[in-house]
Amino acid sequence: MAKKSDTTSAGKGGEKQPGRLKQIGMVAKVVHQQSPRTIPLAITVALVILAVFIGIGVWTGSWIIWPLTGLPIAFLVGFIMFTRSAQKVQYKMLDGRLGAGMAILENMRGNWVVEPGVAANKQMDVVHRVVGRPGVILVGEGDPGRLRGLIAGEKKRVSRVANDTPIYDFKVGNGEDQVPVSKLQRALVKLPRNLDKSGTAELTYRLKALPAAMQMPKGPMPKGAKMPKGMRGKMG
Fold it and tell me: Element (H or E) spanning 157, and its range?
């Protein structure tokens, strides 16, 4: 899972995080609400696979080996179907929401260091910074026209310490020259690996030395606007 540069302990204020089984139960409830056929279909496929292995066991006379072999395979296939459907539901629920890109970045697997909300404006357009093997990746959320200036400013700021390290940028959305939420993680993973682990760590250290660029916009915030989770505590 991606790491925040300002990593905090899991569960602020000593709050106990829900257990793994409870989390799966919560996800299953949401998936069932959004896609009622998903869980029954996954269970049906798992049972069919198990039935096939049991049938092979009856046919060959191996009553124990084949069913025991088929049980984990059936469970795995059913669980993979469930998790993929859960991911699609997540993308559907996040699409078009403020902070959707940040939610994807925070849950990416691998050695990614995420710095949320490194630049923002009064209209709640925001730029997140990610450091990984490709180099520096800037991910913007908001109006494409306004993001152009925000991203350019952050690129200029990052280039002071990034030297020759590549700096990529993406805008989250469904329009032209934008990356849908469902394809954001894939887009980052496909980038070339330009740094080794030590180079990534060194770059992260240099970027931490940069002074904060984002300030609280003057004037009232747009009505009904909510700041992404990662931006709380950075503005003000």
Answer: helix 144-162
